[in-house]
Amino acid sequence: MADHEATAHHHEHHPEDPQAHATRRAILQAAIGVSAGAAVLSTLWVGAGLVPREEKVPSKEPVAVGDTLVFATGPKADQEITLDDLRAAQQEKIPFIIAFPKSPENVVKKDLITNTIMVILADPNKMSPETRQYASPEGVLAYSAVCKHLGCTVSQWQNDTWLCPCHGGRYDIYNQAKVVGGPVPAPVPQLPVKVEGGKVVVAGEFLGEPGADV
């Protein structure tokens, strides 16, 4: 009988202290939370390592000060544009040259659409003061050749006016490419240039954002 009572006494259940139970539960939940958080962070870290890094492509870099302008098309493609080339273009039906910038490292930046540039030798006496300020003393002018309407290349010339063949947008090159016709929403930005060693060199950033506005 004494042994039975001792055994019964040994298995007797004592009610758990509610505060102690709550404390253990809080510790357990915190441990689960930390483990889950660590797992999420680990997943994010691994995922970030799998995302390919965007690498700079030299031919897609935007035009920069010090770049030299080269022919974009034709038999002289990628060759540097000289003052003599611009003088010769004055005698043609299309008196300007479509160009791309070439970096000092000799990379032609032809794979960025907003690097398409129009360069022309014009009469400084016809230019507005603001236009002349960013032209070379010889009269070399440059503008973004990407139409502000839908992004076509402005590649035609008519009645002393620069013309977009897509929808008839017209620009006045002597007055910072002021829009004088067509559905164009804004002028294309001028690109400051200078002549060094007979070649056309970029002297500043575009005076506005190149590319289509619509």
TrEMBL record:
Question: Which residue ranges does the record annotate as region Disordered?
Answer: 1-21
Supply the InterPro entries for this chain.
Answer: Rieske_2Fe-2S, Rieske_2Fe-2S_sf, Rieske_Fe-S_prot, Rieske_Fe-S_prot_C
Q: Which residues form the Rieske domain?
A: 140-202
Q: Which GO terms describe its molecular function?
A: 2 iron, 2 sulfur cluster binding; metal ion binding
GO cellular component: a single term: membrane
Biased-composition ranges, Basic and acidic residues, are: 1-19
Entries under Pfam families matching the protein: Rieske
Top-rank taxon:
Bacteria
What cofactor does this chain's UniProt record say it requires? [2Fe-2S] cluster
Which CDD domains does the entry link to? Rieske
Give the UniProt keywords, A-Z.
2Fe-2S, Disulfide bond, Iron, Iron-sulfur, Metal-binding
- UniProt protein name: Rieske (2Fe-2S) protein
